[in-house]
Design goal:
Distance between the termini: 40 Å
Radius of gyration: 18 Å
Largest sheet: 7 strands, mixed
CATH topology: Double-stranded beta-helix
Shape: globular
Number of domains: 1
Bound molecules: N-oxalylglycine, manganese (II) ion
CATH superfamily: Clavaminate synthase-like
Strand content: 15-25%
CATH class: Alpha Beta
Order of helices and strands: EEHHEHEHEEHHEHHEEEEHEEEEH
Number of helices: 10
Helix content: 25-40%
Strand order of the largest sheet: 1-2-3-13-5-15-4
Length: about 290
């Protein structure tokens, strides 16, 4: 296995091992798992991409999340991100699926609005639009380490509230529908997630977060916006330009990501599988004390 650095201080391209190797070989899995814990973002190029290979690879890392109600692929292991309908027709720009892509363009970490947040996401390119539609990543581990010591101390025990509706409402008031609002009530997490393997903390924020315990709502929103802003300054961002055959995996405990726009009259189709966090991934530590 060879690791080729990708982003500013995080991320590696893995060469010499395929996602199928990881799915079928324990030693390959161990090596890639170690790279995941250390580097937060992994890229495999020129892969044979198929749904069952993606699931087998993802499953090696932990239990898979079921895609939430009212999304494409609901109740299965697959989240389908696409701007075409079942007949292959391009959807209009105000269609829910296109608005969903616009919501993905807000800096976020996957599933921080769920009762069980995500350890990792695996995203594969199926149909690319020819240009644009990049995915950008920033390390919240490095962002945490850049914070001034007094702010770190304040945020060590701080607890934020996240909800799905909070990020969707920034795009369109109807994007989160009644079913989703009911199924996904607000959840609370500490503002940092300590990696139990290497002890490094990461800021745990997202466009889903909107309140901080014990803080005035307006002040909390300002602080959260400031933290997102600092974490994602241009020089700290890795821009992933997709190629056919790419499989990208990221650590949702330690990464922010966003999808960039493209010409929505062209098809872009991606498939995501998501691995749930477990106690072994530090889930017990990101939970606020009252939920223990
Ligand atoms: C995701 C996501 C962005 C993109 O799959 O979780 O945010 O560029 N994707 O498709
Ligand atoms: Mn996402």
């Amino acid at each position: 296995m060879e690791l080729v650095p990708l982003g500013p201080g995080f991320g590696v391209e893995i060469r010499g091992l395929s996602i199928l190797d990881v799915a079928s070989n324990a030693a390959a899995y161990q090596a890639v798992r170690a790279a995941f814990e250390a580097h937060s973002l992994l890229l495999f190029r020129d892969q044979t991409i198929a749904d069952d290979i993606q699931v087998a690879f993802s499953r090696a890392f932990g239990p898979l999340e079921l895609t939430k109600a009212a999304s494409l692929g609901a109740g299965s292991f697959y989240s389908r991100l696409t701007n075409i309908d079942e007949t292959g027709k391009i959807l209009p720009p105000d269609h829910r699926q296109v608005l969903a892509a616009k919501a993905n363009a807000l800096w976020h970490t996957d599933s921080s609005f769920k009762k069980t947040p995500a350890l990792a996401s695996v995203l594969t390119a199926r149909v690319l639009p020819g240009q644009d539609g990049d995915t950008e990543f920033a390390s919240t581990r490095l962002a945490w380490e850049r914070l001034p010591a007094d702010l770190q101390a304040r945020l060590k025990e701080a607890v934020a509230t996240h909800s799905y509706a909070n990020s969707r409402d920034q795009i369109h008031p109807d994007l989160a529908n009644a079913e989703e609002r009911k199924a996904l009530p607000p959840v609370r997490w500490r503002l940092n997630w300590r990696n139990p393997v290497n002890g490094r903390r990461a800021l745990y924020v997202a466009s889903h977060a909107y309140a901080i315990d014990g803080m005035d709502d307006r002040d909390a929103r300002q602080l959260l916006a400031h933290l997102l802003d600092e974490a994602t300054r241009r020089e700290f961002v890795y821009v992933h330009k997709w190629r056919q055959g790419d499989a990208v995996m990221w650590d949702n405990r330690a990464m922010l990501h966003r999808g960039r726009p493209w010409d929505y009259t062209r098809e872009r189709s991606m498939i995501r599988t998501t691995i749930s966090a477990t106690e072994a991934d530090g889930l017990n530590e990101v939970r606020p004390p009252t939920l223990h």
